[in-house]
Amino acid sequence: PILANFLHIMAVILGVFGTIQYRSKYLVLYAVWLVLWVGWNAFIICFYLEVGHLSQDRDFIMTFNTSLHRSWWMENGPGCLVTPVINSNLALEDHHVITVTGCLLDYQYIEVVSSATQIFLALFGFVYACYVSKVFMEEEDSFDFIGGFDSYGYQAPQKMSHLQLQPLYT
């Protein structure tokens, strides 16, 4: 999850840069990332609601079995009271066992609401990126160089006959 959030921050920075600098390629990259971001958040929703064969009991899905980390909202949710269990045989040497009680909303539902909000924002950002990218591409196509092919565009001033170059004979 930390890696996905880091990549999302980088994609948002590229999207903002592409908008400011009129770079449609960065906006297209941002739009492609948002499709992946929606997929990631849909997975998070399915994971916390335990859809299909997904289960929160399997730590290796989110942490690749590298830590005992759980959701931050598990301990810090609204109204949650965290009590450490002293002298527990279940704790590893660098971890402690806790009990969490009194939460107004379970952490799973907070994670689901957070991911649903991310999906909504990503859909809005996708539409924005596609529209602005289209506008930028149209502006690139309609640019007319001085003295270009358009008859209604810029017309170079006509030279006076006495200003025209005449060949010199010596």
How would you describe this protein?
- This protein is 52% helix and 6% strand.
- It contains five helices and two strands.
- The protein has a two-stranded antiparallel sheet.
- Helix 1 packs antiparallel against helix 2 (24-48) and helix 2 runs antiparallel to helix 5 (107-142).
- It is elongated, with a radius of gyration of 30 Å.
Short description:
The protein has helices spanning about 1-20, 25-50, 60-65, 70-75, 105-140, and strands at about 80-85, 95-100. The chain is mostly helical and about 170 residues long.
H/E topology pattern: HHHHEEH
Number of helices: 5
**Largest sheet: number of strands, sense, barrel closure:** 2 strands, antiparallel
Q: What is the radius of gyration?
A: 30 Å
Low-confidence stretches: none
Assembly category = single chain
Shape: elongated
Distance between the termini: 83 Å
Helicity, as a percent range: 40-55%
Approximate strand percentage = 5-15%
Helices and strands: which structural class? mainly alpha
Mean pLDDT, nearest integer?
A: 78
Spatial order of the strands forming the largest sheet? 1-2
* Total DSSP E strands: 2
Transmembrane segments: 6-22, 29-51, 112-131
InterPro entries: Na/K-Atpase_Interacting
Subcellular location: Cell membrane
Family: Belongs to the NKAIN family.
